[in-house]
Specification:
The chain has helices at 17-27, 90-99, 162-175, 231-243, 302-308; strands at 7-14, 31-38, 41-50, 59-64, 77-86, 105-109, 112-118, 124-130, 153-160, 179-184, 187-191, 202-207, 221-228, 252-253, 257-263, 269-277. The chain is α+β, with helices and mostly antiparallel strands. The longest helix is centred in the middle third of the chain and has 14 residues, at 162-175. The chain binds zinc ion (ZN).
Amino acid sequence: MDKLQGIHHITAVAGDPVRNWSFYTQTLGERLVKKTVNFDDPGTYHFYYGDRQGSPGTILTFFPWTNMRQVPTGNRQVTATSYAVDQNSLDFWAARLKEEGVSVTPFTRLNQPGLTFADPDGMPVEVVGMEQAPGLPYWEQSPVPQEHRLRGFHSATVTVPGSTRDNSVALLTDVFGMTIVGEEGNRTRFAFQGDTPDTGGLFDMVVDDHLRDNGLGAGIVHHIAFRAKDIDHEAQIRDAVRAFGLQTTDHVDRDYFMSVYFREPSGILYEIATDPPGFTRDEEADSLGMALKLPAQHEHLRTRLEKHLTPIPPED
Ligand code: ZN
C-alpha cells in the first residue's frame, strides 16, 4: 500500500460564524475557499479556509454554532493545529496578533521556533518558523503580505493517555507508513513522507495522563483527515485499518472529497480524504468561497437557508 500523503484537513467546532470568519480571513489572512452547510445539520454553516486554491494540507474547516459553549482542549483530541510560516515571519506574526489583542507565547520545539495562541473560541493554533516553508499560491486579497502568509499546515498535535499510546503509535507506523523523526519530552514527531515533508507532512503525539477528557464544544477539533491519492488508495487504507482491528465507515461522499472515518486506538476521530475532486468541483478558482454551495440533497432548502444564515462576509 502507498503511504498516506499528509494532513488533508482539520475540522473543528466554533461559536459565532462572523467572529470565526473574521479571525481566519482578516487576522490570519486565509482564504474562505468554500461556504457550504453542515450536511447533517443544514441550518449551520460549514466553512473551509485554506490557501488560494484550497490545496490539501492547508484546509481548516469549522462548524460554527452561534451559542455553542466553549470547552477547553482535552485528552484524546487534536490539541494543536500548527501552520508553517517563513522563519523570518515570526516577529511579524507576534506583532500582528498582539495588535489584534491575541496573546502569544513563543516556543522552541525540536529546534524549530514558533508561537502559540488561541483563536476566538479558545482553540490552540500555532505558527512554526521554517527555513524552507512550502511556496503555496498566494491569495491576492489577503490582508497578510505575501512573504508572511501562512504556508499550510506544519503539523498537528494529538494528546493521548499512556495506556493507549503504543496502539495509537502502531497505527501511524504500521498502517499509515509514517516514520518517527523526533522526540522531545513526552512528544513524538512523525513524518508522512520521510525527512523532507511537504505541506502538512508532520504529526506530533503527546502523552499526558493528567489531561481530562473534555468532549466536544466550541474551540475543539472534531476530527483530522489524512490524504489519500484517490478512491482506490482510500480503499486500500480502509482495508488496512480494518485489518489492524478498527471499525471504519465505508466511503462517504463529501462533495469535495470522498471520506472514510474511524476512531483510532485512543479514541480520536480520524478520516481519510481523497485529494480529488477538490474545491474547484463547483466553483472557478477565482471565485472560490463567494457563493453559498449546497449539496444536492439540500438544494431545495436554498431560499430558506439564505434567509436564515448570517451573511458571510458580514454586511456592514
Ligand atoms: Zn473531515
